[in-house]
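Priority: medium. Attachment 1 of 2:
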């Protein structure tokens, strides 16, 4: 690329001129700072600065602020503030490229232009500037630096060609080549390494050039904050947290009917209220009915009635006095203080805060952000007056978008692109010492250099090794060491193990990081678990106190449950939700009657159910409502394994059988088996409850049957709703523990096979045939087929050909199930003792891993789709694919 002149070299070239014009403000400031003799008047200045200084002479009055211009045009045209501001910004952009502005606009935009062009603005001063009439350059020796960078407006300020000298930014023949580029693996590593070179004492010597809107920006600022290194930072109204809170409050309040607690909880907290995260899935409107905190109730009532208040009243109601002053300053500037809150004006406030940079505010920039490291925008900068400049990224994020030129004149793209390449060349040569740092990989692919390199070097560049002499991979400072655990902090030996619940075990297997978040934060209430919990309480009440339960009809309980869950669904959905709840109650009643659970239940005075202050101990709403105290000896039974690795609560346990009420979507036996296979799953559907509870049940009752029966309260809802008769047992699925696979193969695989017409001749010999195959000691199909053929001929008297055909089909069916330890048939699933012992061993291993994870920080190892994880928004790991992370 071409060799650019340094700021010092440019100063030496222009120091004998009276006036120096350049269109880069940092360059003009740097030249003025280098003056070594006293001067009267300005030395170096940009066209915009000159037009601003002379605005009163040119326009006969002072210039209006941006917000004043927007408000004035908005009042004159009747258009919304946000539309006017957007159009004015477009008009300013067009004016930089052509004087033929009006012809580039739509009819509506032309009206904005007509109003705008008559107002005293910087643009009006620039197009009205006449160097001969003002006499500003008369008798002065004028230099113009980098005239090719001047836009259409800038050129209005230039003196005639014969009245100024043009100074080039580049040396004629010399070239510049980057010696070395450092290549690091990610944004955080880049930030840590470049900040390691800076300290409080030398911070003023450094500048960092990067994409200020990109992902690396937060990493760089965070690294500077961590080392307490000062850096220059601007402060706009949109950066003030209380202003952002206020406009968020307005926006959410206007949608009060449909907003959930999760959307407002943190905002409520910032205004002095409090809502537990367990209510995150509730609608705010419904939650406000049973909210008990006075401050929170006041805030929610303000949100509910916000359309009956003015913006100033809302501000005074929720904001602290000091912060309210800044918000009122904003409202006053927008002429909205005494206007009633409405959607359109709120939209204007939000737009103004986010898009108009020079709104007034009364906040002071901290001293630590007034000086120090200079952070430079790679897309809008050319000259950087710092001894040491660090260039970060230099990928395609450094390129400026020129698509807007299609609306002006697409033919301008080439010339504008050439200007951007020239600016890029100059920028990369700033500073006396330079460091170039890039990402090796971005978005999973090798980082490609900015296309400006191709045009600057006149060659195709595919990687950063093509644009420098030496590409050096790897960091120059070691990665941060793990924090040493101090005395008193948690350690492996301090860890007090807790048994897994079915839910916590599923979380840990799905992803250790999800397990960590669920332990720390818990999970919020949602429609499914709240409705499910209350239906479980009803089932327990129905079994424990059947006579009391029958005092009221189904509609009574339907209304109670619906009222308790009302905040979790919109009012429009109440009738549908109530119908579903009512049908679930009907099914529960039928189920209890079918198995006579209420007759087999006895009151257990050791079980308390009315302790409302500690609902973790088994509080039951319905038992408490009826003035009862105790629970049943067969419901909500807690069971812990001998090794204390597992703990579960059985809904109902009776005669070696667990009954579990399921209030979600019904699953088939096949789905239940597949959901326990963590080797195959990549979606969020891992479920180990069946194995978990069978393990506990088998340990509790060594003898007899061990069956886990799932009762789906939502199954057959259509039949319930239409009054059609059906067997309530069809709502059930069963998971049974069997000693070995022989039982299933004989009683299900073989039995189902011989029901088919073709295989009916094998009915009388199927068990013997299964024994022959299982005890053969071989898996060779030819050998097994020959043995089966001979056995069938002997047992049935069929011909060799017929026996061979039947034997081959039978052997294939049996062999397909010989390697399995879990099976299903119809509504039943089967688990062998070997599968159960393997599961217990896996639980024990994971229990040990939990201990170790307290030291390694619960590394994310998801078996799930992370987008479906509740904690995805707060997780510090970005998971690309299963087992692979990019931190």
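Attachment 2 of 2:
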């Amino acid at each position: 690329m071409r060799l650019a002149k340094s700021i010092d070299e440019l100063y030496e070239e222009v120091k004998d001129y009276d006036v120096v014009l350049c269109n880069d403000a940092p360059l003009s400031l740097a030249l003025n700072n280098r003056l070594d003799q006293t001067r009267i008047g300005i030395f170096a200045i940009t066209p915009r600065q000159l037009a601003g200084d002379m605005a009163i002479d040119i326009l006969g009055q002072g210039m209006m602020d941006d917000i004043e211009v927007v408000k004035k045009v908005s009042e004159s045209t009747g258009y919304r503030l946000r539309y006017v501001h957007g159009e004015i910004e477009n008009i300013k952009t067009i004016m930089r490229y052509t004087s033929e502005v009006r012809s580039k606009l739509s009819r509506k935009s032309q009206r904005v232009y007509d109003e705008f062009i008559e107002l005293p603005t910087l643009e009006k001063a620039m197009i009205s500037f006449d160097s001969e009439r003002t006499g500003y350059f008369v008798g002065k020796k004028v230099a113009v630096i980098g005239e090719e960078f001047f836009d259409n407006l800038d050129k209005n300020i230039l003196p005639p060609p014969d009245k100024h000298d043009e100074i080039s930014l580049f040396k004629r023949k010399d070239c510049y080549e980057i010696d070395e580029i450092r290549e690091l693996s990610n944004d955080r590593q880049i930030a840590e390494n470049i900040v390691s070179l800076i300290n409080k004492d030398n911070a003023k010597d450094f500048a960092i050039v990067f994409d200020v809107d990109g992902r690396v920006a937060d990493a760089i600022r965070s690294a500077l904050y961590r080392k307490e290194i000062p850096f220059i930072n601007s402060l706009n109204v949109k950066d003030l947290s209380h202003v952002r809170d206020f406009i968020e409050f307005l926006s959410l309040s206007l949608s009060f009917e449909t907003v959930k607690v999760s959307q407002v909880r943190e905002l409520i907290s910032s205004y002095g209220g409090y809502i537990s995260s367990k209510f995150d899935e509730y609608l705010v409107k419904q939650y406000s009915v049973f909210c008990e905190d006075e401050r929170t109730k006041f805030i929610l009532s303000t949100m509910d009635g916000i359309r009956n208040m003015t913006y100033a009243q809302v501000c005074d109601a929720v904001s602290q006095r000091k912060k309210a002053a800044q918000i009122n300053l904003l409202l006053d500037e927008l002429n909205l203080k005494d206007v009633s809150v409405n959607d359109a004006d709120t939209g204007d406030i939000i737009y103004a805060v986010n898009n108009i940079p020079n709104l007034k505010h009364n906040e002071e920039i901290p001293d630590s952000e007034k000086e120090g490291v200079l952070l430079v925008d790679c897309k809008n900068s050319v000259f950087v007056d710092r001894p040491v400049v660090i260039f970060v990224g230099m990928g395609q994020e450094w390129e400026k978008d020129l698509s807007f030129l299609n609306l002006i004149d697409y033919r301008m793209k080439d010339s504008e692109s050439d200007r951007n390449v020239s600016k890029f060349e100059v920028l990369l040569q700033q500073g006396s010492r330079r460091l170039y740092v890039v990402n090796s990989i971005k978005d999973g692919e090798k980082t490609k250099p900015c296309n400006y390199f191709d045009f600057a070097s006149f060659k195709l560049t595919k990687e950063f090794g093509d644009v420098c002499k030496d590409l050096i991979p790897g960091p120059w400072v070691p990665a941060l060491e793990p924090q040493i655990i101090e005395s008193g902090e948690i350690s492996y030996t301090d860890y007090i193990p807790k048994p897994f619940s079915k839910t916590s075990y599923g979380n840990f297997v799905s992803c250790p990081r999800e397990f960590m978040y669920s332990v720390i934060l818990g999970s919020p209430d949602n429609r499914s678990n709240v409705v499910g919990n209350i239906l479980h309480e009803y089932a327990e009440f129905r079994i424990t106190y059947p006579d009391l339960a029958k005092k009221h009809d189904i509609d009574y309980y339907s209304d109670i449950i619906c009222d308790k869950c009302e905040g979790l669904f919109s009012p429009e959905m109440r009738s549908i939700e109530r119908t579903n709840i009512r049908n679930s109650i009907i099914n529960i009643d039928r189920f209890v009657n079918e198995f006579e659970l209420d007759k087999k239940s006895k009151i257990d005075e050791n079980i308390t159910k009315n302790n409302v202050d500690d609902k973790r101990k088994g509080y039951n709403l319905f038992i408490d409502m009826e003035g009862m105290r105790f629970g049943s000896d067969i419901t909500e039974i807690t069971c812990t394994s001998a090794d204390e690795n597992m703990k579960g609560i059985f809904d109902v346990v009776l005669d070696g059988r667990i009954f579990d009420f399921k209030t979600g979507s019904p699953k088939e036996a096949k789905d239940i088996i597949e959901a326990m296979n963590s080797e195959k799953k990549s979606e969020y559907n891992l479920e180990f409850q069946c194995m978990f509870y069978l393990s506990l049940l088998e340990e509790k009752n060594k003898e007899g049957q061990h069956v886990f029966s799932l009762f789906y309260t939502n199954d057959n809802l259509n039949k319930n709703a239409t009054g059609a008769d059906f067997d309530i047992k069809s709502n059930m699925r069963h998971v049974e523990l069997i000693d070995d696979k022989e039982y299933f193969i004989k009683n299900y695989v073989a039995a189902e096979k011989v029901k088919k017409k073709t295989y009916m001749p094998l009915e009388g010999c199927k068990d013997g045939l299964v024994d022959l195959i299982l005890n053969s000691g071989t898996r060779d199909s030819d050998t097994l087929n020959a043995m089966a053929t001979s056995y069938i001929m002997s047992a049935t008297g069929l011909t060799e050909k017929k026996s061979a055909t039947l034997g081959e089909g039978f052997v294939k069916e049996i062999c397909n199930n010989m390697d399995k330890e879990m099976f299903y048939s119809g509504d039943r699933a089967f688990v062998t003792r070997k599968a159960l012992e393997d599961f217990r061993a896996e639980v024990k291993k994971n229990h040990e891993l939990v201990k170790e994870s307290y030291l390694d920080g619960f590394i994310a190892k998801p078996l799930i789709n992370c987008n479906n994880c509740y904690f995805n928004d707060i997780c510090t790991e970005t998971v690309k694919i299963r087992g692979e992370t990019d931190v």
